[in-house]
Amino acid sequence: QVQLQESGPGLVKPSQTLSLTCTVSGDSITTSYYGWNWIRQPPGKGLEWMGGIYSGSTAYSPSLKSRTSISTDTSKNQFSLQLSSVTPEDTAIYYCNLRTPYGDYWGQGTQVTVSS
After folding, report:
1. How would you write 59-84 as a 3-class SS string?
2. Positions in the chain short of pLDDT 70
């Protein structure tokens, strides 16, 4: 059974960089036909795909591309998100997600609040 767990600070100050890590168990992040994604949900809004890694290549939402970086640490079976120059509009529940040909797996989500 694949499990994903997000970790990182719950409070970030405006203009700083938000950094989150997703730890994966039950499968390897090097599996090439899987997609490893970061998705967020601001309060009162729907899910927003931020970016992901597919077959070793990284893709980003056009609206966030200039501020987003996703990377992997294969030694720890983790992938990470960095979102720079955050504003209160980046306050959301952040999820890591695994998309496979057989279905999706989700972390439980982590609340990140951007506030001074």
Report:
1. EECCCCHHHEEEEEECCCCEEEEEEC
2. none
